[in-house]
Amino acid sequence: MPGLFARLWRSLPRAASFASRRCFFRRSVILEGMQVLAKHLGSAPKEWLFTYVNELLALPVGERGVGDLKEHIAQTFAVAKPWLKPDDLRELAMHLDGTVKNSGVPAAVIAQALAWILDKVAAVKLEWSKMHNPRKR
Predict the structure, then answer these.
(1) Residue 73: strand pairing partners
(2) Phi, psi for residue 106 in degrees, rounded to 5
(3) Neighbour count for residue 47 (Cβ, 10 Å)
């Protein structure tokens, strides 16, 4: 098996950066794992794609190793589509476009909470410092 990864690594273009090679392997591992799970269990967990996309979004742009991020995500979803339940792709799309965030909390609720926090910054900072003061725990 180690020879397989070495061949895959060498198969990438010489100009490919370390970041793009790392992204290639992460994507490959996730998609192959989803394929195996779908084969044996009927479908793969959508959370694997959530995690992959969230990890990509958390990386600085230069470390992502992909050109056009939207295109890369769309291609990844297209590859994974046969292994997911029918509603999973719709839920993934809603997660990405901001319709649903934070495990099902609607984006409007998040926006309202953020507006309230920004309106009361001084009070929030005071409460935060009280809550996280190690001397008062």
Answers:
(1) none
(2) -60, 150
(3) 11
